[in-house]
Amino acid sequence: MASVLRPSLRLRSAARLPVARSLSTTAHLRAGEKPYFPNEPSAPKVTTAIPGPNNKAATAELDKVFDVRSINMLTDYTKSTGNYISDLDGNLLLDVYAQIASIPVGYNNPHLQKVATSPEMTSSLINRPALGNFPSHNWAEVLNTGMLKVAPKGMNQVFTAMSGSDANETAYKAAFMYHRQLQRGGPEVDFTEEELLSTMKNQSPGSPQLSIMSFKSGFHGRLFGSLSTTRSKAIHKLDIPAFDWPQATFPQLKYPLEEHAQENAQEEKRALEEVERIIKEFHNPVAAVVVEPIQSEGGDNHASPAFFRGLREVTKRNNVLLIVDEVQTGVGATGKFWAHEHWDLPTPPDMVTFSKKAQTAGYYFGNPALRPNKPYRQFNTWMGDPSRALIFRGIIEEIERLNLVENTASTGLYLYAGLERLAKQYPEHLQNLRGKGQGTFIAWDTPKRDQFVATAKSVGVNIGGSGPNAVRLRPMLVFQKHHADILLESIEKIIKKL
């Protein structure tokens, strides 16, 4: 166990090193830029060691009632603004981690504050409905003007959920029910007495031995069912019983992409052949394949649009559903509202799951046969939360008003070009740079990753890692080119401190 925990212990120790008292960086808006937050700080401010005395004291108090071992930093949200996160000691950090990719339009966004204080929100909060039984009179209107307004192409229905893990698990349930419905001959064919009796004993045929295929290094959540498709870190899964479900190898691309085009094409071809072989041969029939557009927790692993088009073709040919997990990549992060829009698929995925930047969760679908043939089969008390759906609607309004998807695409290209320059200058610290043309969803490998992430706070940046060696950028959609200038300068300062 000590070897599993050692990296986080190193990170925590490094975070307590002496830090610079202040930064001289001044943010200058670039030509044509208009700040989204006029009251946003012009630059990071670091005045104490991080964690400072107030943060240490508050963490010790919290530790009496709550497990603090995974804490990054205690945050003063009343003093956090736009792209800047504040701790309890007056330090302001440029936040390019954004609550693990979950803050879309900045801390204390004024429009979301109006949404949060509206009469509609008040009613939703104090009368939280059990949506499956008692939805509010305007629930269809909330969905149609919010999350369904941005539904992926080919999808016109949504099942709302409480978290990304929950969204994936309910999508898996839908896939299993659809698979068995086809085997029976259609939704009108009722269950047999044997199925009804055997499922109460967790036995076949009522509880069939079916599976969901995922990919090595993939991450799809930490709940009981989703864990069986999560393959990124052992610590997520240890001691938890798992389903007998298969995994395929995600393509391992070489960088720079343009220098390894032929090798990478062969790698993706091999991976697709493995997927089809597993579908045909695995002893527990595969009902669906779940895949991330970019494997986030597993190390920011990419594949080409051609690979995903091939995956769609393989799943269609074998009557297997394709679930695209857009929990982390969705809602504008890659310069498209949905990352799978980059792929130019011949037919849409069967389901697309979402959460994080949406501030709510669920899965989209278009095929009406993915609705269970009877009520209460896809059901729980809350089935999501209307208050979070209202926030998502407000987020969508803000994204549209400020053209934030376009901003993320252009800022991402600008930031990537700056990182390419740094990679040439410091090749030992910025390796396998990836994410070009994917908005600000950018990452690179570094041999001193844990030290890099910890040292970042000392120069005024909150940043995250993924996989064993990757530094990942997850800025908000309101991250602009002048923020990129600060980040690029800060990265160079970090490197010089390592």
Automatic annotation (TrEMBL):
**Keywords from the named record:** Aminotransferase, Pyridoxal phosphate, Transferase
Q: Name one GO molecular function term.
A: pyridoxal phosphate binding
Mention any one GO cellular component term assigned to this protein in its UniProt record.
mitochondrion
Reactions catalysed, as given in the entry: 4-aminobutanoate + 2-oxoglutarate = succinate semialdehyde + L-glutamate
Question: What cofactors does the UniProt entry give for this protein?
Answer: pyridoxal 5'-phosphate
Record CDD domains: OAT_like
Gene3D superfamilies in alphabetical order: Aspartate Aminotransferase, domain 1 (3.90.1150.10), Type I PLP-dependent aspartate aminotransferase-like (Major domain) (3.40.640.10)
Return the EC number. 2.6.1.19
Q: Per the record, which residues fall in region Disordered?
A: 32-54
Signal peptide residues are none
Per the record, the GO terms for biological process are: gamma-aminobutyric acid catabolic process
Q: Which InterPro entries match?
A: 4NH2But_aminotransferase_euk, Aminotrans_3, PyrdxlP-dep_Trfase, PyrdxlP-dep_Trfase_major, PyrdxlP-dep_Trfase_small
> Which family would the database say this protein is a member of?
Belongs to the class-III pyridoxal-phosphate-dependent aminotransferase family.
Query: Which NCBIfam families is this protein grouped with?
Result: GABAtrns_euk
Q: What is this protein called?
A: 4-aminobutyrate aminotransferase
